[in-house]
Amino acid sequence: MPPEPYRTPSCPTCAASHVEQVRICELCEEPFVPSVAGADACDPCLRKACRVVARASAEKTAPKRAKAVLRWLPVALAVLTVGILSFNTLVFVDTARRITELRAAPHPAGKHRAKSKSKGKPKTPAPPKQIAATPAPPPPRAETFDDTSIPALTSVLAELRPEAHDPDALLARVQKLREAGLDIFLVRTNIGKNVFDGGSDLRTRISPVQKGGKTVGVRYSRLGADAIESLAGVQPGDVLVSINGYGVDSPDRALSGYASSREKGGAVFELFRNGRRVVLDVRWPK
Question: Any idea what the CATH number is for the domain that residue 218 is in?
């Protein structure tokens, strides 16, 4: 006898035959074994029905969002309109205030003239303006200083006889002058390199100083960092009167002083600083 449909031969647990509860699906009208008690449809139809319901719910949510946007759109437009009107009002008020201040301010004379109310009279053309010739600038002249604040702006080392141009001999004379009571401030400096190896520093600026119409020295207005005077201790504003016993009253004697310092390996600068005589002794290797 063939086995009955939907009947298992035996239960693996109790070894007895059981009849499975088979039902007809209401959606596809096919027999199925319900996995959950009370199920009216098979599992594939249930999953398909769930997808259809979810899609329908999503389609219903979109109109709700559109309704919410349409509900708040008039409010947003009203707020934006009020803001624009307020800004325009503030700009108008500020512009009116500025115009009132400009009208109330007094106008400088000669800038605004009243228009002539006469009509029918031809206007007389204004005569052409005459442009005055610009005077030519004065010719440049060398900057000089006539220093009368220092009563004795002269070089002592250059006036002593017999002349001495050796730095050691000049220092010996400075010591004797100090012992005799002459106010001289002596400064000694040693430089580890020959200051003439790098050439002259073009950043140095000097101007002649005159005393009674005669050049007695030069004033330093600016000093280069590598200049021999800067290394020796000369400061801006100092008035140099001699180099190695040579006065600087003429370019030739000043050049002779620099040549002597190059040959001797040292220089003795005699200068005035704030009304006081200063002697700078600077030495370097030959």
Answer: 2.30.42.10
